[in-house]
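Section 3.1: Structural characterization of target chains.
Under the original work plan, the team committed to producing a structural model for every single-chain target entering the pipeline before any wet-lab resources were allocated. The record below documents one such target. The sequence was received from the expression subgroup and is listed exactly as submitted; it comprises 215 residues.
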Amino acid sequence: MTATRSRPSAEARRKLIEAGIALFGRKGLEGTSIREIALAAGVNIAGIAYHFGGKDKLYLACAEHIAKTVLRGVNEKLSRAETAPKQPTDALKSTLRGAAEFMLATPEIADFARFVLREQMDPSPAFDVLYATFMEPMHRRLCGLWAQATGNEAESERTKLKVFALIAQIFVFRMARAGALRRLGWQEIGAAEIAAIVTLLEESVDALIAAERRP
């Protein structure tokens, strides 16, 4: 296949994944037809079978795309941060900051969040993809930094719970966005709002670590 022919093919695949993520997130796998996806993507309906082998495999491809996009986005945020060696507490804050900035400022995350929330509530094989590709690696990374900052075991139940508690402070502004905006009186979550969220997140890190270090 020539480069000229492969570009439209890759574009069609991308459009099908984007349409799939949006529709699956709103209507679920069973509630979404291949005709709807093809129409939303502006691609011939046969393209789903051609590129993915069917709707179920497209669904898995959507999960993989979400996981890889989020992982890449967070890593890019981190790569722009200071490259000088950091203390474990600063590295933990930096990683959480990068996750917050990417998760809250990236427009397509809204569609990702609907898809992921469905998988959290009713896991399918796609959840295994999300978990293995992004959720577990990111959580392990944060647990490792937490352990370095506190002297606790990285894989202890307490460490895992503490890290989940920190991550939840980011995801509440994505998964419960409408309620957060209304209660805070915000019109949007823009740069100033993200900065306020990150400041409180860093304060939480300091407070939780200080509590762990008390005799």
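The two ends are 67 Å apart (CA to CA).
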